[in-house]
Amino acid sequence: MDASGGARAIPSRLEAVDAVLESFFRLAASRAGRIGDAYTGLWSALETSARGGKRLRPRLVLATYSGFGGSELGTAAHVGAAFELLHTALIVHDDVIDRDFTRRGSPNVSGRYRDVATTAGIPIPTAEHRGMSTAVIAGDLALAGAYRLLDRAGMASEQRERMAELLDEAVFASAAGELIDVDFSIAREIPSVEAVVEMERLKTAVYTFEAPLQAGAVLAGADDAYLPVLAEFGRDIGTAYQATDDLLGVFGDERETGKTTVGDLREGKRTVPIAYAATTGAWPGIRDFLGKADLTDGEAAEVRARLIACGAEVYTRNLASRMAGDAVRALDRLPAPVAEELAPLAGQALDRIR
Q: Can you give the pLDDT at residue 354?
């Protein structure tokens, strides 16, 4: 694989990742068919969850792998696919935790099985329990599959062990972040901005940015001295992305994001703008609406106005911009081919903020 193609070559390299995932699900479906149609159906639902998306994690694996001179596309595609399956596992489980039944505007695994149950005349509470239970099983299968794909990547034993350690750290950190997020949701006090940023880093940035970036470098045989720099870049760009997502969850255009702008407020999610607003005099006028399940569009508009008035929107936007800028500066400490691969990602982060 020629690294000189830079980021322009990534779409064609992602086809190799898709091929690995297709092969994985095809084999799983064949095995499941020997057990029964119901199990085959579950694998089909899981494969649907793994389709689409931006393939961000494989992109990062491939970017650093190529930038550091890696040339075995098949091996890199397996590692990228492993991180994509990990992502699938975590979002399936996260939807269960959040009691969400849709994703990207369509029924997720929970919603798909809930809808089948309700169509059969099963009462809503039982149908929802069936949907979420099935999603837990599906998420477990995807998580196990991520490790299985690493085993199939054709790496030497030492390299495979290091890759498994990176994947394990990603799972370990994400579970910690998810637990903190759950605890935040029931705590009476609003956490600090710093605590929210750290929760979001653990829950999302480690497995989405830091670990995939390092995995590609390790796979290519890069000097270990570059790993902390890649982790720093990943942490900063991850914070920028998540802070922007926090804004889009309240102020975004639903036609562009595919996500409602009242969902986070109704769930009472502890985000950066909410944590900042809690430190201002505007908080009493926001607090009573946060977590209100039947929040109206008019009430949501009032909350948005108060978040803007107290400076929470500007604060969050500035935080995202500052972290994206830090990420750009970190690129100066990486070899030029690697920086060239990663620069578009930093540019996209800045574009999302504007």
A: 67
Taking the C-alpha atoms of residue 283 and residue 48, their distance in angstroms, rounded to an integer, is 41
pLDDT value of residue 203:
97
pLDDT tens digits, one per residue of 39-94: 999 999 999 999 978 899 999 999 999 999 999 999 999 999 999 999 999 999 99
CA distances, 218 to each of 64, 118, 214, 230 (Å)? 9, 48, 6, 11
H helix runs in the chain, sequence order: 10-33, 37-50, 56-67, 73-98, 109-119, 124-151, 157-186, 193-200, 211-220, 227-251, 254-257, 263-267, 272-277, 284-287, 297-309, 312-330, 336-353
193-206 burial code (b ≥16 CB/10 A, e <16): beebbbbbbbbbbb
CA distance 234 to 94: 22
Residue 102 burial (C-beta neighbours within 10 Å; 0-12, 13-18, 19+):
middle
Average pLDDT, the chain: 93
Report yes or no: 260 and 277 within 8 Å, Cβ to Cβ: no
Give me 65's structure tokens. 């792998």
* Strand, helix or coil for residue 292: coil
pTM listed for this prediction: 0.93
What's the 3-state SS for 202-240?
HHHHHHHHHHHHHHHHHHHCCCHHHHHHHHHHHHHHHHH
Give the DSSP letter string of 7-20: GGGHHHHHHHHHHH
Q: Which two tokens stand for residue 287?
A: 């607090």
When computed from its CA atoms, the radius of gyration of the chain, rounded to whole angstroms, is: 21
Q: Give the torsion through C-alpha atoms of 273, 275, 277, 278, to 10 deg.
A: 170
Q: How confident is the model at residue 211 (pLDDT cuts 50, 70, 90)?
A: very high
- Show the domains of the chain with their CATH numbers: 1-222 (1.10.600.10), 224-354 (1.10.600.10)
Which of 341, 351, 254 shows the shortest CA–CA distance to 69? 341
